[in-house]
Amino acid sequence: MDKQKKSIMDRVMDFTTKISGPLGRFANTDIISSVVSGLVSAMPIIMIGSIFLILYVLGSPDIGTSGKPLIGFLAPLAAKFAWMNSLTMNMMSLYCAISIPYHYAQKKKMNTLTCSMLGLATFLIFTINGYDEAGGISVASFSASGLFVCIVTSIVGVQILKFFLDRNITIKMPDSVPPNIGNAFGALLPYATVFSLAWIIRTILDFDMVTWLNTLLEPIITSSDSLWMAMLVTFVCLLLWSVGLHGDNMFLALFTPFGLTWVDQNASVLANGASNVDLPNILAGLGNTGLLRLTIWTAAVWPLLLLMLISKKKQFRTIGVTALVPGIFTIVEPVIYGLPIALNPYLMIPFILSGTISTGVGYLLMSTSFIGKFYAVVPWATPPFLLGPLGTGDIKTALIPIISFAIGLVIYLPFWKVYNQSLDVEEEQKAEEAASVEMIQANEA
Predict the structure, then answer these.
(1) What is the largest distance, in Å, between two alpha-carbon atoms of the chain?
(2) Which of 56, 213, 252, 423 has the fewest Cβ atoms within 10 Å of its own Cβ atom?
């Protein structure tokens, strides 16, 4: 039996080692880590925009079927709330055009301000082609629809700038010129090159990369919002956590561009009068917030908190009390590394199974017309029973953490019993060894 268990664990460890190496290297590349950091930097703006969107929903009579606002005194400000959301959440690509080049410049040890200015200007040139019929400029690409183009222009622009600087293809000023002025003139040639390329592609060739890239990626983005994708992402994330690796940073964060795009689409549909249960994307917010924040830790960690708190073993009760408050806010490291779950042959399997199965159940529930879908970005550390209602405007989403907790508890119970029995055997063996040592010492004395 022990050999069989060891064999299973060895296979799990071998598989995890195989995927964790490439995943870790991919997530830590300069480009990917810069993109993720840039998106995280824009999170405060996006979250504030989400708050104003929630206020709009509460004050708008156009949301839902009642014809009346949920909170009457907010009704006169509903349109102004929507405008504030447009200036923040709906312009996320514009803000990321500053933050992504900034972080990429840090990785490349370049001037961050120079690269941020380059990224912003290149994105504007690359996405705007003259005035529209109303005499203004279209800002549609400033939303999540332009996020992938923003990533491309940010990385390529900084790479071209680095090419010029590494080869000293710059305008050199005398040493007496202040460094800030020298840097400005030194950036003229690479700036001119990047801007000219962007202008030729967008204006002269009339190539709309935003439309082209979104059309190209649409099948991938659409197919990614599925039951099996939700469960696969959860499985890999928890598998990495189970061997001590940070699954959220290494794997889940890679889906942030998709999650933000889906949130933006849901918010736009909602603003046009749709109900929160009729929004198109179930995995909106993936990578930062959304459905997986309601299911994973409420199933994979919360049951263990309960089992530790009611345990007869003092060490478990101590860990449970210590980890309870962080755990409510889904800060799970104290349990994963303190119990531990990581590399624990008795708890790894239920840890992975509970989160994966509860995510599947949660996806099926949210895919119905009974529970609303996410249209706002809520901070990831918000307790799940609050995160759902705040992000979806539907209090019924609080049922998902409850159901997930029940699923996790049922899965954990038999494994927890076996784990405790193994600890009892270890304690008995240690007690017998200690007694033997004392007897030997007594005989020698």
Answers:
(1) 102
(2) 423
First to last CA, the chain: 42
Cβ burial 163-172 (10 Å sphere, 16+ → b, else e): ebbeeeebee
Report whether 98 contacts 119 (CB < 8 A): yes
For residue 24, give both structure tokens: 């870790």
What residues contact residue 350 under an 8 Å CB cut-off, 6+ apart?
Answer: 408, 411, 412, 415, 416
> Is pTM, for the whole model, over 0.85?
no
Task: Please compute the mean of the pLDDT values over residues 332-352 and round it to a whole number.
Answer: 87
Which has the closest alpha carbon to 307: 230, 213, 415, 438?
415
Query: Which tokens in the block code for residue 216?
Result: 């190209």
376 vs 191: CA distance, rounded Å: 36
Length of the chain: 445
**Mean pLDDT in residue range 370-390:** 90
- One DSSP character per residue, 317-383 reads HHHHHHHHHHHHTT--HHHHHHTT-TT-TTTHHHHHHHHHHHHHHHHHHHTSSSS----S---TTS-
41, 103 Cβ separation under 8 angstroms: yes
CA dihedral 84, 87, 90, 92 (to 10 degrees): -130
Enter the tokens of residue 107: 């990785």
Which tokens sit at 113? 């301000």
With 90 as the cut, is the pLDDT of residue 354 above it? yes
- Distance (Å, whole) CA 1 – CA 276: 51
228: tokens are 């099996």
342 and 380 Cβ atoms separated by less than 8 Å: no
Interatomic CA distance for residues 35 and 39, integer angstroms: 6
Q: For the chain, give me the number of helices (H) and strands (E)?
A: 20, 0
